Amino acid sequence: MTRSPASASASASASAGEELVWETHFHAADLGKLRLRIDGLALDAGLPPPRRDAFVLAVHEVTCNAVRHGGGSGTLRLYQGPDSLRCQVTDEGPGFTPDSVPHVLPDPGTAEGGRGLWLVREITDGMEIAGRDVGAEVTCVMRL
């Protein structure tokens, strides 16, 4: 499941001052272990408990979306900068736009989606959605 942080393709995505901490390709069966690993890496980075829990939940929501809507798998890259953790998840699904994430929490009784990404946007310090030729890329950031 894990690839070396020295991967050339992932290193190109690191912003100035960031280091690739972990890169992995995942499937549904990997989500539990992935959540534990993110928690450990966030702890190692010094993210305090309430914010660490929020970051782990946000990453879990994004990875579950990649599995559910993005072709059954995805790639996660975790970067650490001097004052933040940044998680980038890509998938091979049909993609979507930032406009598909509701601005207010949708009523649970509706068929409208987007609750998970709405939550990610609310509990992290930043979320970006980038379109790709194939699939989607969702990035969330949490300041340390």
Overview of this protein structure:
- The chain is α+β, with helices and mostly antiparallel strands and 144 residues long.
- 34% of the residues lie in helices and 28% in strands.
- A 6-stranded antiparallel β-sheet has the order 1-2-3-4-6-5, with helices on one face.
- Strand 5 and strand 6 form a beta hairpin.
- Helix 2 packs antiparallel against helix 3.
- The N terminus is likely disordered.
Keywords:
144 residues, 6-stranded antiparallel beta sheet, 28% strand
- How would you sum up the global shape? globular
Percentage of residues in strands: 25-35%
Q: Counting H and I runs of at least 4 residues, what is the number of helices?
A: 4
Query: Helical proportion?
Result: 25-40%
Average pLDDT value? 88
Order of helices and strands: EHEHHEEHEE
Termini gap: 26 Å
Concise description?
This protein is of the alpha+beta class and 144 residues long. Helices cover 34% and strands 28% of the residues. Strand 3 and strand 4 form a beta hairpin.
Write the topology of this structure.
Layout: E1 2-3, H1 8-11, E2 19-27, H2 31-45, H3 49-69, E3 73-80, E4 84-90, H4 115-123, E5 126-131, E6 136-143
Antiparallel strand pairs: 1-2, 2-3, 3-4, 4-6, 5-6
Helix pairs in contact: 2-3, 3-4
